[in-house]
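Record type: monomer structure entry
Structure origin: computed from sequence
Chain ID: A
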Amino acid sequence: MPVSSSPLAERRLLRAELRQARQDAGLTQEAVAEKMDWSLSKIIRIETGAVGISTNDLTALLRLYKVKDSQRVKDLISRARVARQQTWWSKYRSMLPPTYFQYIEYETSASIIRSYETILVPGLLQTEEYATTVVQQFRASYPPKQVKSLVEVRMRRQELLLKRSQPPLLFFILDEAVIHRLTGDQILRKAQLEKLIELAGRREVTIEIVPFAIGLHSGMTDNFNILEFPTSADDVLYFESVRGAIFSRDVTEEVTAYRELFEDLRRMSLGPEGTLDYLIKAADAIR
């Protein structure tokens, strides 16, 4: 039972292990709460991965569940310890919205990330200059220090995700409007296009553009991310707008619908090679 370095990943795996151990012991959540002298909400939150669990509570819980295999107990305690660790983004918690950090936790442990954007270059593909311009325009109420923090976090996400020894597979679909709406001066525009070209050449990154020539289509009004995990039931659908962020979890039908939409958009796109040609021509056109 290998242990990863992601607190969220370990919390998700630990919750599944504990739920299964409870069921194997023939106990309901209500019975566990009564025997442990806990509130029912505590055991529910542990089993949903909403909170971590201390090693003392875990040891007592495994004793109640009659889990006697010493190696399994050791592994579960290791998971619990990692699940409660501080993350690199913890120092920014007072500066940025809680839902943003929740998204980073999912992103950090996802095995596949699919992103569709109709207006902006996705955060994982942005240059620092482009990111700063976008944050200043879309988060006009943020003071300069908060803008700086958000851009720092975005650049850190890119660095850690793309430089991992085993990075996730990243699929990006952009409406052609994203390229036409590149903000700022010519230098900023060219730098952002060159970054897209560079990233499109990476083995784990696929970038595709849906051209204007397609006309009206079913994805025109949506921007969304699908974060996929080894167990499909854990997949997460994420939407972001100027009004905030929305997560859709444990709703298999909704995730499936957007997964199908994503594949429809891929079929409408220029494809990876056609997109790369398009980006190169767009960059070359800037003098």
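Annotation 1: The CA atoms of residues 193 and 279 lie 6 Å apart.
Annotation 2: The mean pLDDT is 89.
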